[in-house]
Write a structure and sequence with these properties.
602 residues, mainly alpha, Leucine-rich Repeat Variant, 34 helices, repeat, Vacuolar protein 14 C-terminal Fig4-binding domain-containing protein, VAC14_Fig4p-bd, ARM-like, membrane
Length: 602
Amino acid sequence: MAADALSIIPGAVLRNLADKLYEKRKNAALEIEGIVKQLSTAGEHDKIAAVIGLLTNDFTYSPQANHRKGGLIGLAAVTVGLTSEAAQHLELIVPPVLNSFLDQDSRVRYYACEALYNIAKVVRGDFIIYFNKIFDALCKLSADSDANVQSAAHLLDRLVKDIVTESDQFSIEEFIPLLRERMNVLNPYVRQFLVGWITVLDSVPDIDMLGFLPDFLDGLFNMLSDSSHEIRQQADAALSEFLQEIKNSPNVDYGRMAEILVRRAGSPDEFTRLTSITWINEFVKLGGEQLVPYYADILGAILPCISDEEEKIRVVARETNEELRAIKADQAEGFDIGAILVIAKRELNSEHEATRIEALHWFSTLLVRGRAEFSAYLDGIFEPLLNALSDPSDAVVLLVLEVHARIAEEYHHFQHLMSYLIHTFHNNHVLLEKRGALIVRRLCVLLGAEKVYREFSTILQTEGDLDFASTMVQALNLILLTSTELAELRSLLKKSLVDTCGKDLFLSLYASWCHSPMATISLCLLAQAYNHASSVIQSLGEEDINVKFLVQLDKLIRLLETPVFAYLRLQLLEPGKHTWLLKTLYGLLMLLPQIFIEKEAI
């Protein structure tokens, strides 16, 4: 076949085709073009194939760079000479040109781009069957080390895009795997090349790029953190266009994309996080039933972003969280309450207060929405919720108490909560001192003061650590006497001598209030049981009166001056009616000198 070709093309032409001067190679190519035209007109395609074989084997695969350059320009000339009949010879013409893209000589690579450009201009749509290989070659050339090669590849790329957009033979299904494989490449030139193709193909009405978006969405998000501002802009523009298409499309695969967005929402790059959260926000609004199985993952992405350093991210995350919490999905639709609770429990340990607060709102929401389903997972979350009572944030503690109050509607959970609080206060006196009043007062509002105090009293009756029992009773007593939330409880105790309910409450508290003499006396004074108060004071003469005792006595006397005991002070105006009250107060006065004696000793 080579011998046939040598007889077809004059030796001088072949020598010029391998000349180092471009003009000689160009003229030789023009002569080859003319020869091929004649052969094509005569229908002698075997001879044309022989010419192509000669140019391929003796030139494009030659060890001499000028021969390879000549072979490439010669193959382009053959294609031009064939014009409309070039398609039947493409399988011989295109492979050696594509092979030349890998040549070590940058000038050969440049001429390969030029040759393929000229070939593509002639064959247009017939070129599509080689698209995947050409795309692969262009992808590599876009990052070529030689600027001239890059420029030539760019021109070829534009032509190939034009051909693809006007072709009805382009297979998007075959192209997507190629695109997906390259989306995580870090080279900036390749990234620009890929985004360019995505944008162009998405603009073609007959090509459904949106349907394949999950295949390359992660790669686009990856480009948002590129060091090049231009690449970030291009990726953002492409993503914005796709998001707009999603809003207008009835058929979107939200599930696969949701998984990608959740991962990207945790990106260290601020712009990537913002874009991810913005997409998630739209998905929550648009996704409907498709997104129900992904709610837990989405929540896991949203909650940390609520405490993001960037305000824009915080705003979108908070809005998305509210949208998600407002959706009333059920287990039949794939709603996994257990998975949601796992996320909420995890975020209880967040270092950010705002995130912990929103996690607690989710506990409340799920508890209200489906108590039976919530209760099935209670064993795994009750302990973390109890531990959260030690949170440094008052706002968090108040919300934790609200959740506990909802759980404690069942009595055995209520008992567990009260026992845990006593246990926690026993082990953490600082918590009792700083947060005890807040916790007890809030529980009284949420669960009822009488119920809470009765349970505390019942537990403290059997407390083995008498010092702690005394401290705890003193704390509860102070809250009882000073908190506005317990006004009704105080009113009930004042009626202890005339009201059965008041009497029953007094007796319930008295059993544990006895751990503290001053608490016992103040309880008796509150209940107007002055006779018994006097008896208690009389019994104190047998006790070891120490500094701690005297400090408590001092606190009691100060409390007698508060508005809570105004009724008691008014009763002193009628000493004849309240003999035991006078005796009680005189008894306290008799103890007062001990304070001064003790101070002198100190």
